[in-house]
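Pipeline run #58 for the internal structure catalog. This entry was flagged by the ingest filter as a single-chain record with no existing model, so it goes straight to prediction. Upstream metadata was stripped on purpose; only the residue string is passed forward. Reviewer on rotation: M.T. Logging verbosity set to normal.
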Amino acid sequence: MTIRSLPAVGALLVAVALTAGCGSDDDGRSSAAPSASSEVTPTGLPSAPGSAASPTTSALVAPGAPSAGAQGPTQRRPASPPPVVLPKRPASAPGAKQVVDAFRAAGLKVPNPKDRSVDCGPDGLGLGCSELIATGAVTVYVFPDETSASDIAQTWGGQSYQRGAVVLNYLEAKTPAADRPRYEKVLDGLR
């Protein structure tokens, strides 16, 4: 093939590309969708895959072929992640708020109680607890079962106390070790 025959071959390629979509008796759509590897440049020569085509290339696309804008609306994602679903605490275990209220009723310090139950889930500490209330004196964890509570209490060693599914954590608390038995006694007195 010589350089002189290239324009003729290019014109032939353009004619084939234009007639490929014609003559179809179906609903007007072409059965062959143009691909990135078979684009034709305005010169009539096939372009390399991934190369940018000029604006006139879009005029060579077969009529009835779907355009990029006609694919439908874009789905929107929710602005925030779905809420974390925490495991239920056992019916036999007191709730974390109930424990904190019992401490307060017994005259024990529970400054600045904050419900941090969201930290129980996968986005937080991921401890798998059902409820969590932190105070300046002690942090109260309620787990869905005694096995989970026991595992965490053992992990925290001498800085925690477990009764059933409830664990008292003194790691971040300012409670002196001498006052801890009072908190534990109140917890033991709850149902």
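catalog note: The radius of gyration is 35 Å.
catalog note: Residues 154 and 160 are 8 Å apart (CA to CA).
status: ready for reviewer M.T.
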